[in-house]
Design goal:
Blueprint: E1 4-12, E2 17-19, H1 20-26, H2 31-38, E3 42-44, H3 52-67, E4 76-80, H4 91-99, E5 105-109, H5 115-129, E6 134-142, H6 152-155, E7 160-169, E8 176-185, E9 193-194, E10 217-218, H7 220-242, E11 249-254, H8 259-269, H9 280-283, H10 290-300, E12 309-316, E13 320-327
Parallel strand pairs: 4-5, 4-6, 11-12
Antiparallel strand pairs: 1-7, 1-8, 2-3, 6-7, 8-13, 9-10, 12-13
Helix pairs in contact: 3-4, 7-8
The chain binds acetyl coenzyme *A (ACO).
Length: 328
């Protein structure tokens, strides 16, 4: 049986830091409210004109350099994003061109904030089916470009960033094996997180639609309840499937949406919150980029050891959810 895994990781966040206090100068909010309701203290926001493909290219170059390979060694590029440069062409194609990945296929994957988790399993399947030798997968988001800055309920939650990984066979290469993934969807939650206008359901009509219709809309309470359930279900299912105890997980790397969601899930699982790695206080919710951004930081902080069980868990628009169990 082929062992497939992550052999390199690279991340990028825009330079500009925006604190809660700065947001409080733009709208009716406060550092106290944001920290107490979400755990977020600051986020990165792109410079004018900077798009998802720009962040993705930075992150990808770092991952390729760390792996010691060139773009021509990649034969598939997947960009997981809900904030692509354009509805089409795919952001992955722009990244492929900029990197000079001349022999790579490229496509975007849309699974909201679960995008990275979905793409890890997609990449593994490509490699194990023999359709690609090396997949470059990038979660890249500029959610601040689609947030409604007049809706304090949602806009304070988001930040921008990108995280890239190389996924390939571990035959003769050091890496971290993807042991198992679990992917689910509950499309009944269509409207809980949605950009309602500009698709084929409601093409943009300037007589009917406002700018807010083109932006992200969120039912915060509904997402909160769904997210806690999704984390608990995913962790239980993956551990059961692999025959390990939840207590055996060295780290859980959750999608970095909101500290209260993570604390509620930890409580239900009777796990210490410290078992869940978080860095959302500095980056806010970067959607499909949040899990690789967290893993990269854990490596920098020397938190991961060979042989440890590490479980990533995501949830987001769709509603989608799921996780990847990795043997570090
Ligand atoms: N600043 C100050 N006050 C605010 C703000 C803000 N930024 N936002 C909302 N409020 C107010 C509300 O207007 C409300 O005031 P009212 O009582 O006078 O009406 C009050 O705060 C409480 O609002 P609630 O909605 O009840 O606040 P709640 O405690 O439920 O927290 C939150 C809201 C943080 C959005 C919560 O519902 C949540 O975490 N939901 C999940 C959201 C999320 O993480 N989404 C993204 C994840 S999925 C993905 O990543 C795509």
């Amino acid at each position: 049986m082929m062992k497939t895994g992550i052999t390199a990781i690279g991340c990028y966040v825009p330079e500009r830091v925006v604190t809660n206090d700065e947001l409080a100068q733009m709208m009716d909010t406060s550092d106290e409210w944001i920290v107490s309701h979400t755990g977020i203290r600051e986020r990165r926001i792109v410079a004018e004109g900077e798009a998802a493909s720009d962040l993705a290219v930075h992150a990808a170059r770092t991952a390729l350099e760390r792996r010691g390979i060139g773009a021509e060694d990649i034969d598939m590029i997947i960009v997981a994003t809900s904030s692509p440069d354009y509805p089409f062409p795919a952001t992955a194609c722009l990244v492929q061109h900029r990197l000079g990945a001349k022999v790579a296929g490229a496509f975007d994957l849309s699974a909201g904030c679960t995008g990275f988790v979905y793409a890890v399993e997609t990449a593994r399947a490509f490699v194990e089916a023999g359709s690609a030798r090396r997949v470059l997968l990038i979660g890249s988001e500029v959610l601040t470009s689609i947030a409604n800055w007049e809706d304090r309920n949602s806009c304070v939650l988001f930040g921008d960033g990108a995280g890239a990984v190389v996924i390939e066979s571990l035959d003769g290469v050091a890496g971290h094996q993807i042991m198992s993934s679990w992917l689910r969807s509950d499309g009944a939650g269509e409207t809980a997180l949605i950009r309602p206008v500009s698709g084929s359901r409601s093409p943009f009509d300037p007589r009917k639609h406002s700018a807010a219709d083109l932006q992200l809309q969120m039912d915060g309470k509904r997402v909160y309840l769904f997210a806690v359930d999704a984390i608990v279900k995913t962790i239980r299912t993956l551990c059961e499937r692999e025959g390990i105890l939840i207590e055996d997980l060295a780290w859980i790397v959750p999608h970095q949406a909101n500290l209260r969601i993570i604390e509620a899930a930890a409580k239900r699982l009777k796990l210490p919150t410290e078992r869940f790695y978080t860095n959302l206080e500095r980056y806010a919710n970067t959607s499909a980029a949040s899990i690789p951004l967290a893993i990269d930081e854990m490596i920098d902080n020397d938190l991961l050891r060979p042989g440890q069980w590490v479980l990533s868990v995501g949830f987001g628009a769709g509603l989608t959810y799921g996780g990847n169990l990795i043997r570090w």
